[in-house]
Structures are given as C-alpha cells and as structure tokens.
Amino acid sequence: MLFFIFHALPSDPARMMLGQRSDISSEQAIRKELGLDKPLMVQYFMYLNDLSPLGYFSDSDESAFQRKEEQGNMVRLIPFSGESGIFLKAPWLRRSYQTQMTVSSMLKSAFPATALLAFVSIVLAFIIGVLLGAVSARYKGKLTDKLLMVSSVLGMSVPSFFASVLIAWLFAWVLGDYTGLNMFGSLYEADDLGRGEYMSLKNLILPAFTLSIRPLAVFISLSRNSILEVQQSEYVRTAKAKGLSSNKVFMRHVLKNSLNPVVTSASGWFASLLAGAVFVEYVFDWKGVGYLVVQSLEKYDLPVLMGCLLIIAVMFVIINILLDLAYRALDPRVKL
User: Fold this and answer.
1) Which of 23, 212, 302, 315 is least enclosed, having the fewest CB within 10 Å?
2) Do both 63 and 168 map to the same domain?
C-alpha cells in the first residue's frame, strides 16, 4: 500500500535530485539507475526484493545490480552465472533523494530519540495513570474522584499540536527563568566551545510531558473502572472474608488483576506514540522519526518517508507480540 500510494504522487525524483542542473539526458540516467524507467509492477517487485532478507540480483539488470553494489555486505547463497544469484542481505530502504544518504542510516540516528521520547512518555503516563486511577476508585463518588474524571476527559480532548505549543510557551517562555527549560532542543546538542555533541536530557522533559497527557488521561479512567470491576469479584470478597487487610487485598488481588486492560491500552498507546510524535517533535525541534517524517513530506523525499512508515509498522508488530507475552505474565489463565 505504501509503495502504490507514494508512487501515485505527482513527483519526479530525477528532477528533484538534479535540481537546477536538470537536463533530459541526466534525468533519464537517474531514472534508469533508480529503475523508474520500468513498469510500475516491476518497480514494486524490485522494491520487495530490496526489502527482503533474501534478494535476487542479476548482473544483466544494470539498475538492480547497481543497488546490490550500494548495499554491500551480502552473502551469495545460490550462485548463478557471473555475479548473479540469490543473496542473504539486510533490508535495503534505498537512499534519500535530497541528501543521498541511506535511509537506514538516517533512521538509525533518528529512531533512538523517538523511542526514548515514547518510552519515557508511556512509562510516565502508566505509573501516574494507575496511581491516580487507584485514588479515584478508592474515593469513588467523592470530590477527588470527580476532579480526576473531569481532568481525564479534558486530557483526552486536548490535541497534541495545541498542547505542544501551549506547554512550550508556558514552561519555556513565560516561566523559562524559573524552569530553566528550552523551548526547542533535541537529545544531543552541539557544545558552544567546539567540543562536539553532548546529551541534554532536560530537553526531554517538555516533549515527554506533552506526549504523555492523552495516554495519562485514558489510563486514569481505564484503571479506575477496572479496579472497581475487580473489587466486585468473588475472590476479592473471599480474601476479605479470610481477614486480609484492605491494603493487602488491594495490592495482591485487585491491582494486579485490574492491570490487563491498562497494559493492553498502554501497548497500543506506545505504538501510537512512536507514530504520533510527529507534531510534538516538530514543535519542540526534537530530532526523531516524527521530525524526519515532516522534513521528508516537505521535500517529497519518498524513500525516507516510506522508510519511516515501515519502521513504525514493524514496531506495531513487535509491540503486539510483547503484549501477548505480558498477558501471560500478568494472568496465568491466558494461554499463548
């Protein structure tokens, strides 16, 4: 789907790569090198061949063999005539039209920043959300419960882009003298004295806080409702009848068994944060995958954009697998 969607866009990679130096013969050479002179379905299978860990390359196909040379570090498993054969290789996401850097290297430098931002945000939202949900359930129907539920609804309603701008303005501009936080900044910053880059974790605070608002609001409501439901279970009443204290019943039986729906939601939210950090990263100038998506969209850099979306899709799959394993750890009744 990604391939056909983006290859339907009205863009000319050859002209974009050449810029003002563009001429007909150079454009034709670039299209031949990229395989753009071939039918669309042939281009599609070439793209799958590049992505696959097992790829076929023929020295009679000049453009395909050129891509083989660019990838390097291949092992020929089944040799054919000449240099042709089936090779074991790493997935090839091609090169940026604008910078000529490999998409893999660009993602390698950008993904850790996004993963750190999403991880800190989801952990922050999960811990605080479960705690506040437990408080809300403990004081059901009282003022504390009502205030938390109103805050939860408001948090779910705030768009990420608006929250990013508001929080950056408030905590980095208006209160900047007190907080010491920057309105813009990435994980690594250049040293003013020319001593290279250094890690600046304080730049993580505002984007992580902003990104955690919506999942935090969801976790408060979800954990509250789950705790109230588990408290009505027969095994909880049995534990209380055995004389266990309310705190022991809550920690041993209620809280653990009420976490399943929260973990389910957290896994989905974590995957969404990896994909949906675009606005937050763009506003705070956080150099992650979301920032890379915006830059590639502005420049019609299709290989970079497709690589970003593919890595996000892979993370969805991995997170869902980890979720199944987490189910088994939380509830032994769940079978893999």
Assistant:
1) 23
2) no
